[in-house]
Design a protein that fits this description.
Chain lengths: 417, 88
C-alpha cells in the first residue's frame, strides 16, 4: 500500500475505511539468516537497509515491547550533522543525507523539517571553537554559518540579549539541521522493512544468546528458540544486559536523560536553538508544544524518569535564555535510558564472537543517527566489513586507546560527557 | 533522591556529585597487563537493579561515599564512607 496525495484525498472522502495495518504481526519462525535484537529506530533501520541495500530478507527484528517504544519515542527529535572530529564528522554527514531522502525512500511522511539549528555562543573562546567546528563541518561538505550577535538577534528576537552572565556573542547555524517526527521514523522503517519481507516480532524478549565454538547459532526468547546465522545487538540503554547474555562486558553505563514538553502554543520558535552554557535546547513541535531538554541526571539509572534537580536546572536555563516562555506551562516530562560510552562516541563493530555484531554507545545523540546507524550496521552485517563512514566506531579503541573519539574534549572516561 | 551521609545525615541529592561505579576502588596493581587496566577503566557490568557506586559529598563534608542502590527504583540501601569500606 503506497501513500500518495490522491490516496489520502480518496480515503478522506470515503471515511478513511480503506486503510489497513502497515505491517504484519508474524509469529517467529524457527530459523532466520539474520536476527536483529531491538525494534527501535536503529534496529528497524538496520533491517530496512539489509533488505533494500543488500537484498537480504530472511530477517527477524525481535522487540521485547512494542516497535519504537524505547528511545526513538523518547527524544527531542533533533536532526543535525555538526560534529568536528574525524569519525563522527563523516558519519553524521552521511546520516543527514539519508534524512534528506528518507520520506521518498520510505514513501512515508516523517515530517522532516529542515528549520535550521542554531548553537549559541557566549564568549570569545566559545565563538572561536564554533568557528573551528563550522570549518570542520564545511570541510566535510556540510553547511555551517557563523552568525554574529546582530544576525542572531534578527532570527531570534525573543532571546534575552541583556543577560550579563551569558551575553550572546553569536551562533553557529546549520540550515540543513532541524527536526523530524520521531515515531514516524520508527514506523516508516518498520513499514519499509515489513514490505520487503522482514518479520517484525513484538513482545519477544531475548533471554539468551546461543554460542557454539566461538560463533553465534541463535537466540532464546520469551517466544521460543530461534536459530540464526548472524545476530545484531542494537538495544541502546539495555546493551549491557543483552551483551552479558553472550558473556561480554561493554564500555557502557546507562544514564537517564530527561525531556519536557509544554502545552500547545501558537508558532513562536522557528528553529532549533541550543544554549550550551546552560545546557538547554528547544524547538517547537508541529502540534505547538515547546519540546526542550537539558543534560543527563548524571548517575547510572534505568528508571526512564529523572529527578527534580535536573528538571529545575532545565527550567532555570530556559528562563535565563528566553524569559518569554515563562508563562507556558509544562505538560509532561519523560526520561530515556542513554547508553553512555566512556568516550562519548558510538560503537558499530563485530564482537569477539563470530556472527555477533554490536551497535551501541549513542549516548544522548541517537535520534539523528538513526538512518546512518541502520545503513552502516546493515553494511557491516551483510558484508562483514565496516561501512566507510562508520569505520572508526570500533570496539577495540577502548583497549588500544587508538581512535578514542572524545568529541566534547572532556576526557575519554565514564561520567565526563 | 536523598542520600544519608554517615557524617552529615540525610541530604539532598544536589549536594552530591556522582563519581561512577565503585569498581574504580579495585584499581589493578602497577604490574597488571594493559588489558586489565583497559577493562578496569572502561568496561562496566551496568546492572539494571542493585549496584554500588561512588558519590562525592561536594557541597557537604567532601567525603567520598560508597552507595548501594537500585538503578531501576532509585531505592538507596546503604551509604558508607569509602575510607572504611576500602579498609576491609
Amino acid at each position: 500500500m503506497r501513500f500518495s496525495g490522491l490516496r489520502v484525498l480518496a480515503e478522506g472522502l470515503t471515511g478513511n475505511r480503506g486503510w489497513r495495518p502497515h505491517w504484519r504481526d508474524p509469529a517467529p519462525k524457527p530459523e532466520y539468516d539474520i536476527v536483529i535484537i531491538g525494534g527501535g529506530g536503529h534496529g528497524l533501520a538496520t533491517a530496512f537497509y539489509l533488505a533494500k541495500e543488500h537484498g537480504l530478507t530472511n530477517i527477524a527484528v525481535l522487540e521485547k515491547g512494542y516497535l519504537g517504544g524505547g528511545n526513538v519515542g523518547r527524544n527531542t527529535t533533533i536532526v543535525r550533522a555538526n560534529y568536528g572530529l574525524p569519525g563522527n564528522s563523516e558519519f553524521y554527514s552521511h546520516s543527514l543525507k539519508l534524512w534528506e531522502g528518507m520520506e521518498q525512500e520510505l514513501n512515508f511522511n516523517t515530517m522532516m523539517s529542515q528549520r535550521g539549528i542554531i548553537n549559541l555562543c557566549h564568549s570569545d573562546g566559545q565563538r572561536d571553537a564554533f568557528a573551528r567546528r563550522g570549518n570542520a563541518m564545511r570541510n566535510q561538505g556540510d553547511d555551517a554559518e557563523l552568525l554574529d550577535r546582530a544576525q542572531v538577534r534578527e532570527m531570534l528576537p525573543y532571546l534575552d540579549y541583556d543577560n550579563i552572565r551569558f551575553p550572546i556573542y553569536g551562533g553557529l547555524l546549520q540550515r540543513r539541521g532541524g527536526t523530524a517526527r520521531h515515531d514516524a521514523v520508527a514506523w516508516g522503517y518498520a513499514r519499509g522493512a515489513d514490505q520487503r519481507g522482514v518479520d517484525l516480532i513484538q513482545n519477544c524478549e531475548v533471554t539468551g544468546i546461543d554460542l557454539e565454538g566461538g560463533r553465534v547459532t541463535g537466540v532464546q526468547t520469551s517466544r521460543g528458540a530461534i536459530r540464526a546465522k548472524k545476530v545484531g545487538i542494537v538495544v541502546a540503554g539495555r546493551s549491557g544486559q543483552v551483551a552479558a547474555l553472550a558473556g561480554m562486558r561493554l564500555p557502557i553505563e546507562s544514564h537517564v536523560l530527561q525531556a519536557f514538553v509544554s502545552e500547545g502554543l501558537k508558532p513562536c520558535i522557528d528553529n532549533v536553538i541550543s544554549f550550551g552554557m546552560g545546557h538547554f535546547y528547544i524547538s517547537q513541535s508541529d502540534k505547538g508544544g515547546l519540546v526542550f531538554g537539558g543534560d543527563l541526571d548524571f548517575y547510572a539509572s534505568y528508571a526512564a524518569r529523572g529527578n527534580l534537580p535536573m528538571a529545575e536546572h532545565v527550567m532555570e536555563a530556559a528562563m535565563t535564555l528566553m524569559p518569554v516562555i515563562g508563562k507556558a506551562r509544562v505538560l509532561r516530562s519523560w526520561g530515556g535510558i542513554m547508553d553512555m560510552s566512556s568516550d562519548g562516541s558510538p560503537i558499530i563493530d563485530k564482537t569477539g564472537v563470530e556472527g555477533l555484531y554490536l551497535n551501541c554507545g549513542w549516548c544522548y545523540g541517537g535520534f539523528k543517527a538513526v538512518p546512518g546507524s541502520g545503513f552502516s550496521f546493515a553494511h557491516l552485517i551483510a558484508q562483514d566489513r565496516p561501512h566507510e563512514p562508520a569505520a572508526k566506531f570500533r570496539l577495540d579503541r577502548f583497549t588500544t586507546g587508538r581512535g578514542l573519539m572524545d568529541e566534547e574534549g572532556t576526557g575519554a572516561q565514564h561520567n565526563l560527557h | 533522591m536523598r542520600l544519608t551521609c554517615p557524617i552529615c545525615g540525610p541530604r539532598d541529592r544536589r549536594e552530591f556529585y556522582y563519581q561512577g561505579d565503585a569498581v574504580m576502588l579495585d584499581r589493578p596493581g602497577a604490574d597488571a597487563p594493559p588489558q586489565v587496566w583497559a577493562d578496569w577503566l572502561h568496561l562496566r557490568d551496568n546492572p539494571a537493579g542493585r549496584t554500588r557506586d561512588l558519590w562525592y559529598h561536594e557541597a557537604g563534608c567532601t567525603a567520598w561515599l560508597a552507595v548501594e542502590r537500585d538503578t531501576v527504583t532509585h531505592e538507596v540501601f546503604s551509604v558508607e564512607l569509602v575510607e572504611s569500606a576500602d579498609a576491609d
